[in-house]
Structure formats: structure tokens, C-alpha cells
Design brief:
By secondary structure, the protein is of the alpha+beta class.
């Protein structure tokens, strides 16, 4: 049958069917005169695609499913997580996703619903392309950038399901080879989809380490940045982290940093026999796909291990020598836009840290902008010089001669989620059902904000701070007039922003004039951008690119390959819209 007959049967428009074929999620046999012949197999494919699209699942994710990189369960779980981040639990589309697996099993395809697509059929020819991949703690993400058109043409995200069962309650470990295998599958998917990839960039979770042997194979799991073995008590009663700080005099060390993790391992016989180096998971991916036996570590990642000299861009050898084996195991470091080798003939650049990559992939005006990310926690990043950090912020290398000042609040968007659970619990006592309260909370907060009411004074450090993990939040300024739900909600939002503004003041940077905001909380909380604007006195922009860290890694790699001149060229690839009036 022809496309119009197929459209009538499935409830899809001919435009939608052509889009699916152009994007590679539908293959249709051709007959005479290049006409498509839609048989029952293709109709079944279209019905499944339609069901996925009604759930809001991206065409990119459907392609990953077709290639076996992601399972149906993983794809649906990912979509539900996206909806939770935007709207909370139990939105109408979330409920649809919740029943999606059963609908597929029972072949309940919703043929009675019509579906058109707003996406345009993409051109098949692109300029030179750069691919970026981000090895996150919970997801592995990627993007493809058209270097001529200066735009993002594709992005992907698959779950990182490689957490290992803990041998010790303080340990946080992931299967390094499992991560590399999944990331390699994603890279191969990109290379088979786009023929013009000229360079591959890599970024991912910093601080964590794994050990490798003389062939470059992993001898240990990835010990992540979330690992708490450094907080374990040592023989003298102090934690291993406190002991290492006293030994080296470096108060910037924290549990989860690679050198702290190695210090614990060295004193407890946990360094694998035959280890010749430690490195990040990103370095290990690059070693694996390029066939390198020893890691080359960019300074942005090397600094995350700790005991790093920011001025000399090298490990502090005299301090590393105080830790058994650390000096011999530490990787080689580069401060350049370096290439590490090739994969299938395509150059692969040295990996950079995810904070640095996110900044480069999000901010148009590097010198004048502040990047604010509010997810479960929150973080503020801005370009600075060597004197940029304060008592509560940290200096990190970006590229040669440039640095980021970064500050993090442990309880960012999770503070808003805490209040939502509070109201949800109350509502559940009334009708017995747990229903998301985010829509009502957003409405009440906007009412309070527009009326200019004085909210309660809420300290949102409910999870402590990096400097004081035992600190807890507080609510103050309560009187008979302001103790209302809307003022409590608005007070929490303002408390979240106040924490970040305090970190900005600590950085002592006075030449910034705009903010780029990102993260799930920015999408979920309607007035958050308004409150950020009021607190900082600056316009707020939203980045339209997705998977910003992968974008930054791709652009960094393009410089390494000579396709771009430097980070000043990145502005043309960053697209964001001004805040609403």
C-alpha cells in the first residue's frame, strides 16, 4: 500500500511517516518508480513509533532502541525521569508512560488518535561534524555538532546502569568496562549515522579514579566522586581525608578526590597488583578506543584528583611522594588542546572535566557570563584569574591561562522537592492518593512573587554545606501575616538563589553582566529565573543546546583537530533566548 493508505490506517500524517524514514527509524521497501510499499511489518513499526511519540519519546531515543543501545524499559524509564524533572510525578504524560510497556505487549497502539509532527525533515548533507560524549554518573550522553552551520543537529542520552554492589557502605563503584562498552556502542551508532565526523571529544565525571595495567586495561572498578572511603576513621581516629590534609597541608582536598581515594587504598592494601597508572573513566575510554597503554590527562581532570599545582599545571610531586605509590601511578598531564590518537581514522581529543565542558558548551560571553546550574544540587561557575576563588569557592583550570571559579550548594533543587513532598504528604492524608504538587506550588509562588509579599526567610542548606556537612536549614521571620504556603514556597526559592548569590560574592568577581541558567529545577520552577534575575541584578538566559557538557567536549575537540581556532570561536555555537518579559 502507498503512504496515504498507511497514514489512514495508523493515524499518522504522511509528513510524519516521511520524517521517520528521513531520520532512520523506519525502513520501507521500494517498488517500481521509487514508490514505497508499506506492508504489515512497516505498519507495525509505525504503530510502535507513534506510541513512543505520543509518550514524548525523542526520535533519537527510538533510533538508539532500534540499534540495541537502549532497551524499551530503559527508554521509557528515561522519559519518565524527564517528565519528573519538568513536572513531577503523575502528570498526564507520565501516566501514559507508566502504562506504555503493557500497551506494547498487548498491541494497544492507539490507532484512533491522529498524530502529526512539527519536526522538519532534515537535510541529508552536513558540513564537517564534531561528536562529543559525556560519561556522567547516571547517564552517558552525546551530541553531534555541524561545524559549518554552527548548530547542534543531534543529541543522545542513555542510562549509566553500571553501579556495582558495595563491598563497604562507604564505597561507590561502577563497572569501568561496562561504561566503556556502552559509550563505544553510542560512538559507533553516531559514526554509522553520520559520515562526516571529523573529531571526537570526551568529558565526564571528575574526581573519581580507576587503576590500569601496563597494557592499558582496567584493574579496578571506577571509584566515583561519590565514594566516601576518605571519611572512614583511620588508626589515629581522624578520617583518612583529614589525615591526608594534615600530611600535605592542602586544605582543598575532599573525600571523593582521586588522591584521597588512593591514599585510603594504599594504606588498606586495595591498590591492585600490577597497576601502573590511575586515571579518570574518560581517560580510560580514550585509551581503549585509541589503543593507548598509558593515559594522557588534561589539567582540568588532573586537578580534580587533588594535590595539583594550578600555576605549573602539574601534580605536586613533593606531596604525591608522601602517599605510597602515588607519584609513580599519576598520569601524564597536558594543558593543551591535545589529540590522543584516532578511532576508525577519526582523531580523538584529550578529555576535559565536565564542569569545564558545560561552561564552554553553555556560555556565549565567556568573560562576562555566570553559569548557574540547578538540579538536585546547584553550582555556579565563572571565568576568573588565579586569585578568583574565595573561602567557599574553588579554582579549577579551564584552558591554558584561564580558570573557572566554582561554588556548589549541596541542596539546590532538592530543597524545592522537599517542600513538594511536604505538601504531597498532606494532600495524601486528605484523599489517599499521592499527587504531584508542583503545579499548585508554582502557581502559589508566582502569586506571592507578583504581589510582592515578604516571604519567610528560608536557609536551604538542608543537606549541609561542603565546608560544614553538619549544618542544617532553618525558617525565620515568621509572623501572623506571612506564615502561608505561598510565602513558604517563595521563601525556599529565594533561599536557593541566596546560597548561589553568596557563592558569587565569595568569588569576588565584579565584571560579570549576564547569567546563563540550566538544570532541571530551572525548567520545573516557573519563577526561578525571575528570582535569579532579582538577586543578581542581571539578565538571565536559557541555553537552547541540549547535553551542554557533550557540546563543550565536541567544540574543545574541534580546536584540537584544527577545525576551530580557540574557545573564542565557541560563541557562534551557543544559542539561547532572553528571559521572558
Amino acid at each position: 500500500m502507498n503512504i496515504h493508505e498507511a497514514a489512514k490506517i495508523t493515524g499518522l500524517s504522511p509528513k510524519a511517516i516521511r520524517l521517520y524514514e528521513s531520520r532512520g527509524v523506519l525502513q520501507v521497501q521500494k517498488i517500481a518508480n521509487d514508490y514505497r510499499d508499506y506492508q504489515e511489518t512497516e505498519l507495525d513499526q509505525l504503530r510502535r513509533i507513534k506510541l513512543f511519540r505520543l509518550a514524548g519519546i525523542s526520535i533519537s531515543d527510538i533510533k538508539l532502541l532500534n540499534d540495541g543501545i537502549i532497551t524499551t524499559d530503559e527508554m521509557v524509564a528515561k522519559r519518565k525521569k524527564e517528565l519528573e524533572m519538568a513536572y513531577g510525578h503523575h502528570s498526564e504524560q507520565w501516566e501514559f508512560c507508566d502504562s506504555l510497556i503493557q500497551r506494547l505487549r498487548n498491541k494497544q497502539y492507539n490507532d484512533e488518535h491522529n498524530l502529526d509532527e512539527t519536526d522538519e525533515i532534515e537535510k541529508l548533507q552536513y558540513g564537517p561534524l564534531a561528536a562529543g560524549i559525556d560519561l556522567g554518573t547516571t547517564t552517558i550522553s552525546a551530541t553531534v555538532i555541524d561545524l559549518d552551520a554552527r548548530r547542534q543537529i543531534e543529541y543522545y542520552s542513555v542510562p549509566n546502569c553500571f553501579r556495582l554492589a558495595a563491598q563497604n557502605a562507604a564505597f561507590s563503584e561502577q563497572d569501568a568496562d561496562g561504561i566503556v562498552k556502552k559509550a563505544s556502542e553510542l560512538i559507533n551508532h553516531i559514526l554509522s549515522t553520520y559520515s562526516g565526523i571529523c573529531v571526537i571529544g570526551v568529558t565526564g565525571q571528575a574526581h573519581g579514579i580507576l587503576y590500569t595495567d601496563e597494557k592499558g586495561d582496567a584493574l579496578s572498578p571506577l571509584i566515583t566522586w561519590q565514594d566516601k572511603r576518605g571519611d572512614s576513621p583511620a588508626a589515629d581516629g581522624r578520617s583518612y581525608c583529614e589525615q591526608l590534609i594534615a600530611l600535605t597541608g592542602d586544605r582543598r582536598l575532599a573525600t571523593g578526590y582521586g588522591t584521597v581515594t588512593h591514599y585510603y587504598n594504599a594504606l588498606n592494601g586495595l591498590v591492585p597488583e600490577g597497576a601502573v597508572s590511575f586515571c579518570s573513566i574518560m581517560d580510560y575510554l580514550i585509551m581503549t578506543i585509541t589503543g593507548q597503554a598509558r593515559p594522557l590527562c588534561h589539567m582540568s581532570i588532573a586537578a580534580s584528583f587533588g594535590l595539583f599545582d594550578l600555576q605549573q599545571n602539574r601534580f605536586r610531586r613533593e606531596l604525591m611522594a608522601l602517599i605510597p605509590g602515588a607519584a609513580a601511578l599519576s598520569p601524564a598531564v597536558t594543558d593543551d588542546f591535545a589529540l590522543c590518537g584516532t578511532y576508525k581514522g577519526i582523531p580523538v581529543a584529550v578529555a576535559i572535566g565536565d564542569n569545564q565542558a558545560s561552561f564552554l558548551g553553555s556560555v556565549k560571553n565567556l568573560e562576562k557570563s555566570i553559569l548557574i546550574n540547578i538540579g538536585t544540587g546547584s553550582q555556579i561557575s565563572l571565568m576568573s584569574d588565579l586569585c578568583g576563588a574565595g573561602a567557599h569557592t574553588e579554582l579549577r583550570p579551564l584552558v591554558k591561562g584561564r580558570y573557572l571559579t566554582c561554588g556548589a550548594a549541596l541542596c539546590g533543587g532538592s530543597a524545592y522537592a522537599l517542600i513538594e513532598r511536604f505538601f504531597q504528604s498532606y494532600a495524601a492524608h486528605l484523599d489517599g492518593a499521592k499527587v504531584s504538587q508542583y503545579q499548585m506550588m508554582n502557581s502559589l509562588a508566582r502569586q506571592a512573587y507578583l504581589k510582592g509579599r515578604s516571604p519567610l526567610q528560608v536557609d536551604t542548606s538542608f543537606c549541609g554545606t561542603r565546608q560544614d556537612p553538619q549544618r542544617r536549614g532553618a525558617i525565620a521571620g515568621i509572623d501572623e501575616q506571612n506564615f502561608t504556603p505561598e510565602n513558604l514556597i517563595l521563601g525556599v526559592i529565594q533561599g536557593m538563589c541566596k546560597e548561589l548569590h553568596g557563592l558569587f560574592l565569595d568569588a569576588q568577581s565584579h565584571n560579570k553582566c549576564e547569567i546563563v541558567a540550566s538544570g532541571g529545577a530551572v525548567q520545573r520552577i516557573e519563577i526561578l529565573k525571575d528570582v535569579i534575575r532579582d538577586d543578581f541584578g542581571m539578565p538571565v538566559f536559557l541555553n537552547q543546546n541540549r547535553e551542554e557538557a557533550a557540546v563543550g567536549a565536541a567544540l574543545f575537540a574541534a580546536v584540537a583537530a584544527g577545525a576551530l581556532h580557540g574557545i573564542e570561536d565557541f560563541a557562534g555555537f551557543i544559542h539561547y533566548q532572553p528571559e521572558r518579559d
